[in-house]
What does this fold into?
Amino acid sequence: MSDKLREQISALADDHLPQGEHELLLRRFAVDKALLACWERYHLIGEAMRKNLPQTDTRRLADRVMAEIRPETVVVEVEKAGPAFLLSRALAGFVVAASVAVIAVLGLRHDTRMQQTAAAPAEIVPAGAGLPQEPLSYGFVNGASWEGTASQVQASLRSYMVNHDVIVGSMAREALPAAAYVRTTKDQPAEPKTEADQDSSPRQP
Amino acid sequence: MVPECVQAMNIPRPVAESLPGGADSDRLLVERVQRGDKAAFDLLVRKYQHKIVKLITRYVHDGSEALDVSQEAFIKAYRAIHGFRGDSAFYTWLYRIAINTAKNHLMAEGRRPLDRGVDLQDPEQYDMQARLRDNDTPERLLLTDEIQRTVEQSIEDLPEDLRTAIVLREIEGMSYEQIAEAMSCPVGTVRSRIFRAREAIDRCLRPLLD
It folds into this structure.
């Protein structure tokens, strides 16, 4: 502990420490017990000079107090936040809710425009431009799923079912139930049935 | 206690803001505690523990019991500090908590708190009462008296410029600026003299406290 630090403590005890020196000194107090002891003794000297000392040994009082309040820190910090903390939380919740609402409204408007676009595609979009060549499909089996055009999904399902049969054949066939379905979008005409489509119908193990 | 060199000086009366333990550092520490810095509360406890224990001893005469009640008062203050808005000085607020804690303690013990006509706003009155009523152990009394004697002797042994500076500060309650004016020296010199005086006293005191 340097003379400079102790002189700063002396000035702080007298309330004459320049503003710029507070922060660093207070941080040092938190990590250096010797500084705390120095601060305590300077105040003890003052009380002794004013003949104001209690007839009781107070040396361990601060340690006892701090030992009691140390576990309360977290609770106190939450309490400390008080109305401001609650207000900020409410505000944050409101901002999130408002953002979701705005996105929902924008999405709804966008969806409406898309429906209008689909109703009269020739007027807005040139034929074939930006639209998928094949209808979109979705398939799943035992938790696995695929998205893409109907033919891509069918190919994935076929591959899966072949592998599934191989695995199940080598194990117990009853062990792994399997299911599959293919859905096409309503707006688009369903793909013509092929042999592959026939193969992709749900199979029972 | 006031040295002759100090008595002979034309000393300006101290202003309230420059009393020892001024409000600014307290406010700073309180704000830090309110932001969750418990080390700042440690500083406040170490600063005011002597005053609070002495105050509580007016009500609770047993030394160890007074320490327990003081501890309870500081803990109550810590729990309530987030509600402290600075309308009064921190010590005034702490003082009220300490008195209420002491009174509640006596009520809980089935004892009636007696102020015995002591004006608790007048420190000189309860200093005297305390001397009459404190019934601490001889060891504790011995330590307190020893500290008191050591401090007084150390001040006697100080060079005159240091002694004058520390007395004007601690007993007269003058600000650094007022001391600088009274001693015809820069404020920085006052700060240095007060520090050196404290260091000299502290060197004599430390063996007693370790």
About this structure: The CA atoms of residues 121 and 174 of chain B lie 21 Å apart. Residues 13-23, 123-128, 131-135 of chain B have pLDDT under 50 and may be disordered. Chain B touches chain A through 74 residues (CB under 8 Å). The two ends of chain B are 26 Å apart (CA to CA).
